[in-house]
Amino acid sequence: MANAQCACGALRLMLSEPPRSTALCHCFACQRRTGAPFSANAFYSVDSVEISGPSTEFVRTAESGRKVRMHFCPACGSTVYWKPDASPSVIGVAVGSLADPDFAPPAMSVFEQSKHKWVRLDGTVERFQRMPSDKRSRST
Ligand SMILES: [Zn+2]
Ligand SMILES: [Zn+2]
């Protein structure tokens, strides 16, 4: 059992299972959303997530053309989770909101086409210029 929360603690998630997958994303939308050079994301089965507290929804269109519904705390502004229309069985959670240095490392790194040049990842991370679905996009 793990817990995620926004900076002020009003918006909380209880996570009853480990994440299905983990990823870093270097796209500009994540850079602007987080204020950080890349986002760290964990994806959970919707059945394993219990949400409490208020959130405001920010909807953006992903590169796939499908919508992603970001949920942030109306009091402190932290985005804690999001729901991709393309995968209704999954909830994305901002890894930082778990505040756990022992959290599972990222399995992959996506949208490296806009990765900050100083960011270095170890060899265990699977890397992609864009998304894994695009076979031509794999980084070398
Ligand atoms: Zn908050
Ligand atoms: Zn992104």
Describe the structure.
There is one protein chain. This protein has 1 helix and 11 strands. It is mainly beta and about 140 residues long. It has a single domain, classed as Alpha-Beta Complex (glutathione-dependent formaldehyde- activating enzyme (gfa)). Strands 6-7-8-9-4-3-10-11 form an 8-stranded mixed β-sheet. Strands 1-2-5 form a 3-stranded antiparallel β-sheet, with no helix packed on it. Bound molecules: zinc ion (2 copies).
Beta content comes to 35-45%
Instruction: Tell me, briefly, the overall form.
Output: globular
Spatially, the strands of the biggest sheet line up as 6-7-8-9-4-3-10-11
Number of strands: 11
Task: Provide the CATH architecture.
Answer: Alpha-Beta Complex
N-to-C series of helices and strands = EEEHEEEEEEEE
What's the CATH H-level homologous superfamily?
glutathione-dependent formaldehyde- activating enzyme (gfa)
